[in-house]
Amino acid sequence: MAADAILIVEDDPDDLELIQRALRKARVNNVTAVARDGEEALRLLLDGPDRLESLPLVVFLDIKLPRIDGLEVLTQVRSSTRTKTLPVVILTSSDEQEDLLRSYDLGANSFVRKPIEFAAFQKTVAEVGLYWLLINRNPRPA
Amino acid sequence: MALEAAIAERTRDLAIAVKEMESFTYSVAHDLRAPVRAINGFSRALLEDYGDQFAGEPLDYLLRISRASERMGQLIDDLLKLSQVGRGDVERTEVNLSVLAASAAARLTERLPDRDVRLAIQDGMNTRGDGRLLLIVLENLLDNAWKFTQRRETAEIRFFTTNEDGRRIFHIADNGSGFDTRYRHKLFAPFQRLHRADEFEGTGIGLVIVSRILARHGGDVWIDGIEDQGATVSFTLPERS
Predict the structure, then answer these.
(1) CB-based contact, A116 to chain B, within 8 Å
(2) For chain A, which end, N or C, has fewer CB atoms within 10 Å of the first or last residue's CB respectively?
(3) The pTM of the whole model exceeds 0.90
(4) H-helix or E-strand containing B96?
C-alpha cells in the first residue's frame, strides 16, 4: 500500500461508498484501504502477517463494528508503540456524550458524527479528511 | 417483608425498562440513521452526478425521495434530542438567562443575517438551574420566535420577567403569526404542528423539549397567542437548590 493512504474502518457498505465518494469529490486522491470490522482493522495495523507495509496517514474509524468494536480498536492502536501516534478520527452515527467522552479518553484525535443530510455529510468528510491529510502532520514512528 | 420484596421487584423491573429504553435509543442513533443516510446520500448523488439525465416526472420523484429522507433524518435526530434531555442529572448552578438568551440569539442572527429582528432582553435575569439544558430551552423558544415572525418586515421579540402572586415568570413574546388557541393543547405533544409544512418548517419537537427540560427543573410552561398577532411563551423555574 502507498505511504499516504487512508484507512477506512466501516462495516456499512453504503456509508463506505459515501465516504469514498466524498473524498473523491474533495479531490483527495489518496489510496483508501478498507477494513470491514475491528478485527480486520487490527490485523492491518498491528504486528502480524497482514500488517500494512506502511502506516496510513489517518484512520476513519466507526464505533459500532462487528466482532471488535471501534473503541476496542482504538484502545489497542494506542497501546502499540508503532501506532501510538497514528491520527484516528472517530466517524460514527452516534452523538451520545458517553461515546464522545470515551473516544477522547481513549486517545481519538477527532470525533465526528456522520450527518444524515448528504451535503453536510460530504462537507464533513471532506473537511476532516483534508485537515488530517494536509494540515496536520504527525510524527512518523522510527 | 412481602411489601419490601414487591418494591425490590418493581425497582428491578424499572431498572430493566430504563436499560431497554437506553439501548433502544442507542439503536435508533446508530442503526436507523444509517439507512436514511444512504437513501438521502444516493438520491442526492444521483442528482449531482446524473442530474442532466433526469427531467419532468423522474426528476420530481427523485427530489421527493431526497426530501422525504431529509425529513426523516430530522425527525430521528429530534427524537434523539428529546431522549437526551430526559436523561442525565439536572445540575443546578447560578445561571444568567439574559446572557444565555443573548448567545442563542447571536447564533440565530448569524444563521439568518437578512432578517430584521428587534430583540429586547431584560438584563440580569439570574436564576438557578442546569445551564446546558436551559440554553436548549432558550434556543428553542427564540428559534420559534424567529421562525414565526418571518413574515413580518420587522420582527419584535422580547424576553422579560414579571412577578405574579410572588411567582417569578419568564416570558418570550413575539409579534409573529400566533396560533389558533383552539389547538393550544396540541402544542406540547411530540410532533404536533399547527402549521402546514409549506407555511413554517419544523418537526414539532421544540416545545416538547422545552417542557420536558422545565419539568425536570420543577418548572412549568404555557403559551398564549392571538392568531396573526403573536405568541408569548411563559415559564417558571423554582429557585430551590
Answers:
(1) yes
(2) C
(3) no
(4) strand B93-96
Question: Which backbone phi and psi does B140 adopt, to 5 degrees?
Answer: -65, -45
- Cell numbers for A137, please give them: 502532520
* Contact map slice: B 46-85 vs A, CB within 8 A: 66, 69-70, 73-74, 76-77, 80, 84
Q: Which residues contact B228 (CB under 8 A, 6 or more apart)?
A: B177, B178
What is the domain-level CATH number for residue A31? 3.40.50.2300
Does A38 have pLDDT greater than 90? yes
Does residue A118 fall inside a structural domain? yes
Asked, for residue A34, whether it belongs to a domain, the answer is yes
Residue A1 falls inside a structural domain: no
> Cα–Cα distance between B192 and B186 in angstroms, integer?
6
Look at residues B222, B147, B136, B212 and name the one whose alpha carbon lies nearest to residue B187. B222
Q: For residue A65, what are the domain limits?
A: 6-134
Domains and CATH numbers, chain B: 2-85 (1.10.287.130), 93-236 (3.30.565.10)
Cell of B200: 413554517
Write the pLDDT tens digit of every residue in B116-168. Answer: 999 999 999 999 999 989 999 999 999 999 999 988 899 999 999 999 988 99
Chain centroid, CA B46 distance in Å: 32
The DSSP letter of residue A66 is: S
Q: Is the dihedral of CA B166, B172, B177, B180 positive or negative?
A: negative
CA dist B81 and A91 (Å) reads 19
* Residue A140 located in a structural domain: no
Contact assignment for A96 to B76 by CB distance below 8 Å: no
Nearest by CB to A64, which of B30, B45, B74? Answer: B30
DSSP count for chain B of H helices, then E strands = 6, 7
Domains: count for chain A: 1
Q: Which spans in A37-89 are helix H?
A: 38-45, 70-78
CA distance B182 to B8: 45
